[in-house]
Amino acid sequence: MATGKEAGMKIVINPITRVLGASQVEVQVAAGRVVYARCAATVFRGFEMILRDRDPRDTAYITQRICGICPTAHAMAASFAVEELAGIRPPHNGNLLRNLIFAGDLLQNHIRHFYLFAVPDYVRGPEIRPLIPPSTTDYRLPRAENKRLIDSYFQALDVSRKAYEINALLGGKAPHPHSIIPGGSSVPVTAITVLNLISIVKKIQKFIEERMLPDVYILAEHYPEYFKIGGRGADFLNFGLFPVDPEVSSYHFPGAAVLNGRMEAVDLGEITEHLRYTHFEGEPVEHPARGKTRPNPDKPGGYSWAKAPRYRGRALEGGPLAQLWIRGDYRRGVSVMDRLIARAIISREVAGLMRKWLTALKPDQPVFSHFRVPDSGVGVGLTGAMRGALGHWLEVAGGRIKNYQIITPTAWNFSPHDDQRGLGPVEEALLDTPVADAKKPVEIKRVLHSFDPCMSCVAHVIVLDQPGPNRVIVF
């Protein structure tokens, strides 16, 4: 039987399980460690093409369909872009309501990701689907702590549902709520709704404090080497998460770029998208405001449907670790375990903010600012999101959308090689990862799951055996 210690072995994970959407990771293993990595998004969706010639006010609804687990992030970015185009801002209640709906979605995502996607890599579950077949034999938790995390796993299903209730109460439905729109919100707030929401948020806070935070530190105690696995330099990006006020004088989680540990204000002119190794035609390097969406599945050298965004030529990582690092709340390191801990910490912080926003709402006050869409112009909508920095670039002519470009957080994190063959953040984090057993490369999956790539879940494993040391194993 071949193992990861055989020189030159290729491992292809396709599809990646316990992530959101279709993707593939290919690594080369030599002397038991990853020496090469390549990440690919394997499905083309083309939302930029769908948006052409539409009314700009449609963007907050249509772009939510990019993703069912984080739709509100796209509604926020789209709303910000249209508001910049039209020169308007939401009223006080509109800003708070959008923050609350977005925060509810963020919490359901982080709770769901940690327990349903990441925890099974470390915790031996009951012999029921979807927890069988197990990912590994490397289970280290003592019986009592293992049982605790399994109990938390099943509790998390209900708690993440409660977070969705927030979206349903304030947004009309979940996922894809109707009430995050340019100009504010479409659902008025009432005192009884506020009281109901406070009760829900208290229950979520209790779970995070008593379960999620202790659980992640239990994993850290028994898997300490994962503070060194999945590491890379301190290269981060955040666009700012949750405006403090309608005028966006500041953010609760501020925006910045971090280059090799040094923080600077974000210069949008320094963002480029590299196309050389993608399934897209166009200039080899483009700014998103001038970018086009020209798919070519047969392009020579292309291996991913994700473009390769770069800032000053560097691949920057986004997500909870980046958001806390920039705010100064957590700077222990950059690794698998640091990403998981940061996700739990930011969940606690966001739940606390929700309590404050709920008490700051003013029932019976306006939630929406009326506006007229200009015949022409541009707008940029930027926000931090569940997995990092999200940007929407909008151009309008004749009152209709002429061009729309989107850079998602997973495009940053799960980026393919750039024009100079530089690796994306996940590709880079995979380098030097130890692989004990190529038939069950759980170490690779632990690195992947720490980023929470936005791909939809699948539940089967296929192994294709080929003779020789260079056989390909497809999971």
What does this structure look like?
The chain is α+β, with helices and mostly antiparallel strands and 475 residues long. The chain has eleven helices and 17 strands. The chain has helices at 47-51, 59-62, 71-86, 92-118, 143-171, 191-222, 320-327, 336-360, 409-413, 425-430, 442-451, and strands at residues 9-13, 23-30, 33-41, 180-181, 184-185, 236-238, 241-243, 251-253, 256-259, 262-264, 271-274, 285-286, 308-311, 377-384, 389-397, 400-407, 472-474. Strand 4 and strand 5 form a beta hairpin. It is globular. The model is unreliable at 1-6 and 455-475 (pLDDT under 50).
Features:
single chain; 475 residues; alpha+beta; Cytochrome-c3 Hydrogenase, chain B; four-stranded mixed sheet; three-stranded antiparallel sheet; 11 helices; globular; disordered N terminus; disordered C terminus
